């Protein structure tokens, strides 16, 4: 890590040097001008959720971007970046995408699965052209997740589709926002990882290295990507277990396409600490986790995650 000195600290020492230089050379009219430059670190873009919202700027540069997602609400949330096909916008989302999902979820809760599938079949043809491009894994209330993703220029929607206690998607309650990624590269580089996670539909989730007490910078390699039975791709969510954690309830809860999946309240004894969201095959994402000693897991938002080796437990020692 480079150490940066502020002008406030260096200024007194500079005065001494200037004074000595003037004293040693009586003919000098003035001390030579000294310029100090400070290098700025990588920009961190804050995203804040207060209730059912995303407070973030409207435009960002393309390439690598680092985000700090702060959850100040009373609900768990995530961020998924959806790259939209040309000509489509948030107005089309509200008019053509939300109604089929809302209708389908209502029917699932009623137990009418066949009609629910028919409702999802009303999604517009262009919906299949959306590129789900990463984001933040799930975070619990009062938690923060810092993550880095590589974004192409274009028009994006960021969303969270966790569900309210009545089954309403957070996206339908206002957790959708348009974001323009400019055709101007950020010039940023990805962080240096301390541990790697590889994930694929065939091998599941594998940890390369060890999670340790303190700050861990995690590189997530998406070796492939498929559409699972609940119509979403795999992702990586970091959870911490309390003494009363119900791991089977957690696995079931991570499947949104069930009546109580991703529905408030989240399972007892489980704290969501971030991670990375669904992104294409071959993509790489990063997230930072400051861990205390205890029991943890990486789990994907897919049905039967343990059976697919996408529910992997680990322990952080003292």
List the helices and strands and how they pair.
Elements: H1 7-24, E1 44-49, E2 59-71, E3 77-83, H2 90-110, H3 113-120, E4 131-139, E5 144-151, E6 154-159, E7 176-185, E8 195-200, E9 204-208, E10 214-222, E11 236-241, H4 247-253, E12 270-276, E13 284-291, E14 294-299, E15 311-316
Parallel strand pairs: 1-2, 2-7, 8-10
Antiparallel strand pairs: 2-5, 3-4, 3-6, 4-12, 5-13, 6-7, 8-9, 10-13, 11-12, 11-14, 14-15
- Chain-averaged pLDDT: 90
- Percent helix, as a range, is 10-25%
Low-confidence stretches: 1-39
Q: How large is the count of helical segments? A: 4
How many strands in all? 15
What distance separates the N and C termini?
25 Å
List keywords for this structure.
alpha+beta; 35% strand; 318 residues
Please tell me about this protein's structure:
The protein has 318 residues and is α+β, with helices and mostly antiparallel strands. The chain has four helices and 15 strands. Strand 8 and strand 9 form a beta hairpin. Helix 2 packs antiparallel against helix 3. The two termini are 25 Å apart.
Question: What is this structure, in a nutshell?
Answer:
With 318 residues, the chain is α+β, with helices and mostly antiparallel strands. The chain contains four helices and 15 strands.
């Amino acid at each position: 890590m480079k150490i940066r000195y502020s002008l406030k600290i260096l200024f007194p020492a500079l005065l001494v040097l200037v004074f000595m230089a003037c004293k040693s050379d009586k003919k000098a009219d003035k001390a030579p001008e000294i310029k100090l430059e400070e290098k700025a670190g990588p920009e961190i873009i804050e995203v804040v959720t207060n209730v059912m919202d995303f407070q973030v700027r409207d435009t960002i540069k393309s390439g690598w971007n680092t985000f700090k997602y702060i959850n100040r609400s009373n609900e768990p949330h995530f961020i998924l970046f959806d790259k939209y096909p040309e000509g489509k916008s948030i107005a089309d989302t509200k008019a053509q995408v939300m109604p089929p999902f809302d209708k389908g979820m209502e029917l699932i809760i009623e137990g009418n699965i066949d009609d629910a599938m028919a409702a999802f079949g009303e999604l517009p043809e262009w919906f299949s052209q959306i590129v789900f491009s990463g984001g933040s894994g799930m975070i619990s209330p009062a938690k923060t997740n810092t993550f880095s993703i590589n974004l192409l220029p274009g028009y994006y929607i960021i969303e969270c589709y966790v569900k309210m206690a009545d089954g309403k998607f957070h996206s339908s309650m206002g957790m959708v926002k348009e974001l323009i990624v400019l055709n101007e590269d950020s010039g940023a580089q990805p962080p240096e990882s301390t541990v790697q996670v590889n994930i694929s539909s065939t091998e599941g989730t594998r940890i390369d290295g060890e999670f340790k007490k303190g700050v861990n910078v995690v590189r997530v390699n998406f070796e492939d990507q498929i559409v699972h039975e609940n119509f979403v791709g795999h992702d990586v969510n970091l959870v911490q277990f309390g003494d009363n954690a119900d791991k089977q309830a957690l696995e079931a809860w991570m499947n949104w396409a069930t009546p109580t999946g991703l529905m408030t309240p989240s399972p007892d004894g489980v704290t969501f600490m971030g991670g990375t969201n669904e992104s294409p095959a071959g993509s790489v994402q990063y997230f930072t986790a400051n861990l205390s000693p205890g029991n943890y897991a990486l789990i994907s938002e897919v049905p039967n995650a343990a059976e697919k080796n996408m529910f992997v437990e680990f322990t952080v020692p003292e």
